Predict the 3D structure of the following.
Amino acid sequence: MSLETEAGSRAAVAELLLSVADDEFVIGFWDSEWTGIAPMLEEDVATSSIAQDEIGHARALYELLATLTDDDADRIAFGRDSAAYRHAALLEHARGDWAFSVARRWLYETADAVRLSALARSRWEPLANLASKMRREETYHRMHADAWLRRLADGPRDVRARLAGSLVRLWPDAQEVFAPLAGEEELVRHGVLPDPMAALHATWQAEVRANLAPIVGGLAPAQPSVDGRERRTDDFRWLHGQFTLVARSEVGATW
Amino acid sequence: MSSTGERDRVWEVFRQEGEGDPMIHSGNVNAPDEELAMHYAREFYGRRGESQRLWIVAREAITELDDADLLKPPFDRSHKKPGGYLIKHKLESARARAGEHSGE
């Protein structure tokens, strides 16, 4: 395959890698905001460890992207202006309360699982291998998110209400994990992305609407939008300022 | 979460370092149910890939025996220990006798 050599294909693959990497990177940083203040000590360690895993996945993806575009993984992760990040609108919000974080993680983990199962079948081997590796760890993340979703859903009225409110609020932005990519046609044609985002979205939405029906009483069908990965807000600009703080303090430093 | 009004339970965690190794008590975690206990045990005793297997046991499922009358009897029970019965000398003399008979 001419992926590595054809400039057009390379740009399309780069966009795909960047979208997945930025999703993982940004949710990792939001969830790490719980370190020290999670509901209990054990959960504190679990949440922090999962957040670290996500940043680890982002790192592997940035490294793959860097070899493709002859760039540097650290530069991609920490050297971009906040407007250049391509995470989905779902990951744009500040961490909120615990119910909000659980709702977001659950929506993200379910979407990520659908996306990863497709990427694991990618005809571009480096991506298929990395996706398969990530899936092994994401299985555990998904179990953890399921456990918390059920706990809050079975909790007292105010807990249930907070969870349901967060799910409803995040629902439109959750679609954006499957926002169409500019070079998507080419990716599908080459088998880099085995199924179009629209097909992955349909799979995810059917599953998630059924699972959430008992908690929120039916979510209206929704669609991803074209700019679903380009909406940067003050929430993210603040987070970006936080996670680039060290890198900016001594540009080019190594450790 | 304290708002759910539940009491956290204590779960004792045993870990096995390699296949076939004994399960060794590692410590415990607090968790409201078995599912989260499993996650927390994994995070505390397995997230660095250091464990082959974990056993997570609700503390209340453990039958504890620490009665001194049963475990530390007041009388001399040294004869119940393998070392308390001095078979060594008997063995030596038996071997000596056997040696004589074989004409050494």
In short: The radius of gyration of chain A is 18 Å. Chain A has one domain: 7-249.
